[in-house]
């Protein structure tokens, strides 16, 4: 942030600053879009705003938000992770095959999934940083390896079954009167959100952004870029494994679990104003991006929009929103003393 | 810059507003919009009732009639039965070798995986008896071009004594099948068809119209007039799936059921569950029609998790669904796209080599599983995985049951 503060009309009220923050582009655009979409949904179907429906929305959206957080770590560090969709699918299929309906195996298998997630992240990270293979290629390869290995192992279609205990995380919750069910997914989601925000405010988070913003400068100032980036890949894989637990719990096992999730997650992060190439954007905005994508899917459903034109409408909205947000970067930024301190470090 | 900002902001609002306007209409008109969007102008030859490019009235009626016909052949071996067979002599195809070649479209879904295991077990029987020497297989992984070159490779090798083809798509594979026919070896096509009759035999169950109609008729019979039905479909544009939906539309059109919508889910359980949940948030859903049973359990769970009564359900003979059906006691039917058809091409090849006659179009029986025979099929398939198909027809093969369990 080296630009000189633009002259500011003093006595400028906070409301104007807030409006500028909301509609002035950058990461804030996504929050505006989210509000607009929710407003349209509420008009189309007031029933959606009832607590049980909102809880169902959260339960369904939680995995994508978690994936978006993982993808954010990697993208802000200047890389990409295309392997998360395959990893989600692999983890669910592995879990079903190993648990095979036995309640007692739930926890050991979950630990195994965590270990597998860490290994996948380490391999992604080390190949990218030490062997200097572009992460697009590394993770594309990992995506294909996982996809193929799982099909080789299972002969093409998943076997076994998840235990009831395993499915609780994504499907169950606390029975309550108003919301019907307070889903466990909500608690997990809140925990991930808090952890992610804390992490991005920690020294690690700042070095992560520094590494993505300017690799050389970060290296000269003593950051071990390869370590920081590898850790980002591990975080992404571990969060993808967690998302796998939630998705498998939510809907059970099918051969298609996880298909295409990597692109939905990247879309969510980009929609949140996080810049591909690294160094800019906040983790909260990335999560808002994920919620926006899910809300958009919900809106299409509520409008009974013909399935055939949904991808086109989705594409137009995403391009328009990102273009609107990108406009921010091509003109002098709002001075740092304004309503948004610390913009790039994940508030 | 300011202009750009206004422009892109305008675009977002315009799109949102547009989508809201064009579709904020009664539910039954969106269905027409849907069809109009999918259907290119084909010179106005579409029939009334179903304005669908995938619908052929004569074929529809033929398939519905075939469901009531008594098939010829042994009742305990449905894979050898045939409906209205017209036999062809096969003496001209006598071979001096017994290498069997198989070009498979893919093993990309559990239905194909189940059938593929059954086929391999059947081959083993004939290998042990000496009828089949070598069994050569190429898997195209769902890629038309790969399958065309796979078939060409069999032809070029010149040592296949019969070629079995399970085409990945109809029109694209037709020339390749014709080329295989011209090489002089007997060609057997099964599952999806091609636009030629040069093969010795084309093996398939009754078909998609019958499949779609079985489920739709069940809903009409078991729901009160005015009930609301949601249709869940996997993908648009795949002939076998479009036929199922076209037949269902035909039957729904003559009924008093209200069709809430038809949604594409790609067979993904999470998408299915989310879609059904959202329909339930908007109002009642009394019945679910599906063009394939993948993820039927997720649809049922959406009713459980939102505290709604079970719908009248159309699933498939996938075991996961059948187990859920029994466990919940809901009203349901399991249409079956006879998985045992994977045995028939092997039997056909051996028959042709032996000079026995085979039906030129080998139509296999295709019956849904109903509540009456559900438990019997569950017993027969005990210990099989959820993504296994009840009508796999391999119980008498030597590898049963381990081969299907350890997939």
Key descriptive features of the protein:
heterodimer, A: 347 residues, mainly alpha, ABC transporter involved in vitamin B12 uptake, BtuC, two-stranded antiparallel ribbon, globular, disordered N terminus, B: 407 residues, alpha/beta, Rossmann fold, 2 domains, 6-stranded parallel β-sheet, 5-stranded parallel β-sheet
CATH class of the largest domain in chain B equals: Alpha Beta
Oligomeric grouping of the chains: heterodimer
Structure class of chain A:
mainly alpha
**What's the β-strand tally of chain B?**
13
- Physical arrangement of strands within the biggest beta sheet of chain B: 3-2-4-5-6-13
Could you name the ranges of chain A where pLDDT drops below 50 across 5 or more consecutive residues? Answer: 1-12, 332-347
Question: What is the overall silhouette of chain A?
Answer: globular
Average pLDDT for all residues of chain A: 84
Count of β-strands of chain A: 2
Largest sheet of chain A: 2 strands, antiparallel
Count structural domains of chain B.
2
CATH second-level architecture of the largest domain in chain B: 3-Layer(aba) Sandwich
Fraction in helix of chain B: 40-55%
Q: Over all CA atoms, what is the radius of gyration of chain A? A: 21 Å
What's the arrangement of strands in the largest beta sheet of chain A?
A: 1-2
Q: Can you give a write-up of this model?
A:
The complex is a heterodimer of chains A (347) and B (407). In chain A, a hairpin with a 5-residue loop joins strand 1 and strand 2 (181-183). Chain A is built from 14 helices and 2 strands. Chain A has a single domain (54-329), classed as ABC transporter involved in vitamin B12 uptake, BtuC (Orthogonal Bundle). The model of chain A is unreliable at 1-12 and 332-347 (pLDDT under 50). Chain A has a two-stranded antiparallel sheet. Chain A has 347 residues and is mostly helical. Chain B has 407 residues and is α/β, with parallel strands linked by helices. Chain B has 2 domains: 68-206 and 338-367, Response regulator (Rossmann fold); 208-336 and 368-384, Response regulator (Rossmann fold, 3-Layer(aba) Sandwich), CATH 3.40.50. Chain B has 14 helices and 13 strands. In chain B, the strands form 3 sheets. A 6-stranded parallel β-sheet of chain B has the order 3-2-4-5-6-13, with helices on both faces. A 5-stranded parallel β-sheet of chain B has the order 8-7-9-10-11, sandwiched between helices. In chain B, helix 4 (110-128) packs parallel to helix 12 (344-353) and helix 7 (208-222) runs parallel beside helix 8 (239-253). Chain B is globular. At the A-B interface, helix 2, helix 3, helix 11, helix 13 and helix 14 of A face helix 1, helix 2, helix 4, strand 8 and helix 9 of B. Chain B: This is Monosaccharide ABC transporter substrate-binding protein (CUT2 family). Chain B: It holds the Pfam family Peripla_BP_4. Chain B: GO terms for molecular function: carbohydrate binding.
């Amino acid at each position: 942030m080296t630009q000189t503060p633009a002259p500011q009309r003093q006595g400028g009220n906070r409301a104007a600053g807030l409006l500028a923050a909301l509609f002035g582009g950058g990461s804030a655009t996504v929050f505006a879009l989210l509000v607009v979409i929710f407003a349209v949904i509420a008009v189309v179907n007031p029933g959606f705003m009832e607590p049980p429906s909102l809880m169902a929305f959260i339960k369904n959206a939680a995995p994508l938000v978690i994936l978006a957080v993982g993808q954010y770590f990697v993208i802000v560090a200047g890389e990409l992770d295309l392997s998360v969709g395959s990893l989600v699918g692999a983890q669910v299929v592995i879990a079903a095959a190993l648990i095979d309906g036995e309640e007692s195996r739930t926890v050991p298998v979950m630990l195994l999934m965590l270990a597998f997630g860490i290994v996948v992240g380490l391999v992604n990270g080390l190949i990218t940083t030490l062997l200097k293979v572009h992460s697009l290629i590394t993770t594309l390869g990992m995506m294909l390896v996982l996809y193929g290995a799982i099909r080789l192992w299972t002969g093409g279609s998943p076997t076994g079954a998840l235990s009831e205990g395993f499915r609780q995380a994504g499907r169950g919750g606390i029975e309550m009167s108003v919301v019907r069910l307070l889903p466990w997914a909500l608690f997990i989601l809140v925990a991930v959100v808090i952890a992610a925000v804390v992490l991005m405010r920690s020294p690690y988070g700042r070095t992560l952004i520094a590494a993505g913003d300017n690799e050389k400068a970060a290296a000269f100032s003593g950051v071990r870029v390869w370590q920081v980036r590898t850790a980002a890949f591990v975080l992404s894989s571990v969060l993808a494994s967690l998302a796998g637990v939630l998705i498998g719990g939510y809907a059970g096992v099918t051969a298609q679990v996880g298909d295409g999730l990597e692109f939905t997650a990247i879309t969510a992060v980009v929609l949140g104003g996080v810049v591909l190439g690294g160094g800019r954007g906040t983790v909260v905005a990335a999560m808002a991006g994920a919620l926006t994508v899910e809300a958009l899917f919900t809106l299409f459903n509520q409008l009974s929009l013909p399935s055939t034109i949904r991808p086109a409408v989705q594409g137009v909205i995403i391009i328009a929103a990102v273009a609107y947000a990108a406009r921010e970067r091509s003109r002098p930024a709002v001075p740092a003393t304004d309503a948004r301190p610390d913009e790039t470090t994940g508030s | 810059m300011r202009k750009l900002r206004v422009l892109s902001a305008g675009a977002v609002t315009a799109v949102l507003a547009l989508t809201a306007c064009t579709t904020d209409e009664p539910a039954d008109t969106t269905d027409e919009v849907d069809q109009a969007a999918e259907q290119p102008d084909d010179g106005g030859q579409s029939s009334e009732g179903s304005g669908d490019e995938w619908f052929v009235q004569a074929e529809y009626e033929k398939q519905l009639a075939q469901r009531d016909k008594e098939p010829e052949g042994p009742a305990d071996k449905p894979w050898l039965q045939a409906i209205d067979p017209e036999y062809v002599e096969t003496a001209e195809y006598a071979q001096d070798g017994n290498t069997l070649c198989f070009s498979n479209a893919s093993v990309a879904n559990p239905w194909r995986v189940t059938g593929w295991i059954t086929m391999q077990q059947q081959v083993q029987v004939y290998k042990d008896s000496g009828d089949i020497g070598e069994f050569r297989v190429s898997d195209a992984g769902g890629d038309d071009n790969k399958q065309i070159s796979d078939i060409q490779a069999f032809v070029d090798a010149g040592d296949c004594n019969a070629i079995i083809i399970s085409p990945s798509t109809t029109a694209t594979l037709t020339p390749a099948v014709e080329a295989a026919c011209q090489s002089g070896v007997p060609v057997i096509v099964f599952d999806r068809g091609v636009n030629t009759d040069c093969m010795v035999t084309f093996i398939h169950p009754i078909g998609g119209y019958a499949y779609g109609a079985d489920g739709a008729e069940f809903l009409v019979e078991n729901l009160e007039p005015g009930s609301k039905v949601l249709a869940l479909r996997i993908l648009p544009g795949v002939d076998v799936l479009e036929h199922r939906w076209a037949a269902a539309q035909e039957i729904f059109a003559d009924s008093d059921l209200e069709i809430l919508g038809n949604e594409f889910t790609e067979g993904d359980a999470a998408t299915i569950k989310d879609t059904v949940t959202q329909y339930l948030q908007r109002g009642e859903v009394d019945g679910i029609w599906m063009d394939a049973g993948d993820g039927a359990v997720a649809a049922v769970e959406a009713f459980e998790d939102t505290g709604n009564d079970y719908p009248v359900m159309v699933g498939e003979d996938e075991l996961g669904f059948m187990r859920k059906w029994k466990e919940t006691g809901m009203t349901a039917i399991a249409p079956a796209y006879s998985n045992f058809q994977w045995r028939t091409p092997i039997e056909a090849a051996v028959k042709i080599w032996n000079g026995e006659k085979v039906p030129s179009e080998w139509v296999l029986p295709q019956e849904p599983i109903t509540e009456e025979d559900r438990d019997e099929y569950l017993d027969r398939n005990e210990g099989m995985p959820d993504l296994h198909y009840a009508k796999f027809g391999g119980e008498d093969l030597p590898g049963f049951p381990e081969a299907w369990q350890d997939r």
